Amino acid sequence: MDFSQRRERPDHNSIKNRSLKYMDFSFFFIILILLAAGLISLFSASAFYTTNKGMDSLYYVKRQALWMIVGLGLTAAISRMDLEKARKFIKPGVILTAFLLLLTLFSHPIAHVRRWLPLGILKLQTSEFAKIILVLYLADFFDHNLSHIASNPKQLLKPLSVMALLLGLIAAEPDLGTPTLMFGAALLIFFAAGVKARYILMSIAATIPAFVFELFRHAYRLARLKTFMSPSDNTTGAGYQLAQSLLAVGSGGWLGKGAGASQIKLMYLPVPHTDFIFPVIAEEIGFVGSMIIVLLFLALLIKGVRIARRAPSFYTTLTALGLTLMIVLQAFFNISMATGLMPTKGIPLPFFSYGGSSIMATLVSIGIILNISAHRNQTE
């Protein structure tokens, strides 16, 4: 699909150009199914863990439900915003995000990493919202500068510098999975915007030294890579989680062991309700049920791309596309990690893994996509 053809900009992309009859409710219905499935899966994955810790079996479910309600409230509010007027806050948003990411590096470490800012009942994971601000910034940049890039490729240094700043701060937490996800989604936005392939390849080449440096900076990353290359070599050490995950996925068979019947969640995984929730799901609902979840994410991708194609401006096209790709790529990374197709990394499964910041950031993205789906350009 060619997204690089500049569309006719509407006179004013405001509420008057929107209508609920245009909003893609089938897209929202997919989201509701994923949210419901996620909450049920979270209960199954966390109930034994919380009971074993002397906590309420619904502890994580209640908290996740609260963040879902807050997130859906944000979805409703954002779906009615004037996205064109909000563009003036994008660059200040980048600065604020960079400041919060820097502040996070001085926060109290949790499990030897600094990824959260304590805000009372919520530990804010700024990197989750950095995904959104990066997509908005790139969409805004290419909308304003696409015609100049062909004659002056140095213009690309601006978005690449912003990417390097945000991704570098996240990598310093340390976190290599999220920057990899954001970089992949960003390059797809570059491609959709019509940036020539050689400049994208040059960008990839430029990041290789930084990636290798980060890979060797922490011994556990090399251990994970070795485990990925030879999963059966160290099943009691660095490869323990992957080995248990593969065992659970395989033991689920075609139809699974049944709701609540997973064994991997019985303390065989340290925290089965976070990044490794997919093996619990696969063990209980089997290959068929797992494929239904994969197909739901595929449907989300197809719907998101269609919304992007029908968006009223080039800016909203890239925004809808970028946010959709960020969510679906994250799901792909998580499922690939759990099934041994990629090295393990700390990336949650959207709508399923426990995490207030993750679910709210995802629903903010959904609100923006729904907002764009309710617009039509002048030719329509």
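Above is the first protein from milestone M3; the second protein from the same milestone is given next.
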Amino acid sequence: MKPIWYPLTVFYNASSPACAREVDALKRLEHRGRLVFVDCSAPDFDEAMLAGIVIRRADLLARIHARDAHGSWHTGIGALEAAYRAPY
């Protein structure tokens, strides 16, 4: 497993009940500011933060993603695993 550099930005789809429940659980954990949450389904989501990368908003809405402090991307279960490791 590649190292994860925190803080970790978690890109999630709040309009998906399953995704929203998972992120709510993560938010309840004490993560000492090591997680930042971005709702990609929000009308004010700024796609400019994706400039220069191949990931698009549609990708973020379809599957949970996380970007670490060094710019490495994690998707799906890898993103969740990285987020759940933040408190430790």
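Note on the second protein: DSSP finds three helices and four strands in the chain.
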